[in-house]
Design brief:
Arylamine N-acetyltransferase fold; 8-stranded antiparallel β-sheet; 5-stranded antiparallel β-sheet; 13 strands
Amino acid sequence: MWNGDLIDLDAYFDRLGLTPGPGGDPESLLRLLHRAHLAAICFENADVRDGVPIGLDVPSLQDKLVRRRRGGWCFEQNLLFAAVLERLGHQVTGMAARVLLGRSGDIPRTHALLRVDGRWLADVGFGGGGLLTPLPLVPDVVVRQGDWAFRLDHRDGVWTLHSSQGGGWTTLYDFTEDPRTPADYEVLNHYLATHPKSVFLGRLVVQRTDEHARHSITDRVLTEARPDGSVVKRELTADELTTTLREDFGLELPTARA
């Protein structure tokens, strides 16, 4: 399904700063890879902003995210991760989520995420303060990951992921376990990259979440948001943008414009 046989595991582990084939039980390795992937490969949409086509085949994903050390958005990140996990012997099912971020209404399911081994929610492609490590698909259990806390609700076949922020719970997204294929993601990828109402068109979006904060750039605005609800923003100059992308996000973008 995910063409894991095409993955260069040595190159991927090197990109994550891990030694090839780290040992340990499968669950520990899954958590290790999830966290290391997030730390090394940030969310970014520079190609979408610039009208560059996004390839979702494994060779294209390896070239961009691994060899050229770029980031990517949810389809790129989670398809690469699915191929790696499949190669390592995990059972991976693609799913689609409706990104809410506290909103409601008629919102399409356009976010790619993964179910692993039938019982873990894995998502290395959600830039908006998402999971650091896989979350058990168990409802009504609060799980702490660094300073963040998450919980899942499950009602009428729909899972909803919440994050504790500013003393309350914010809804991040909801999803069903209906399986999605790489072909499904190709359609969603094209929709988000071309639809005139897509929030990713015409502006740079870069995001990285660690144990303590979500760091993001939108155009030239650098934001640090913490789980306690505190937010710090500042405008970057063109030179500061290039430096911040390189030093804080590990990115050398083809055109670091705002």
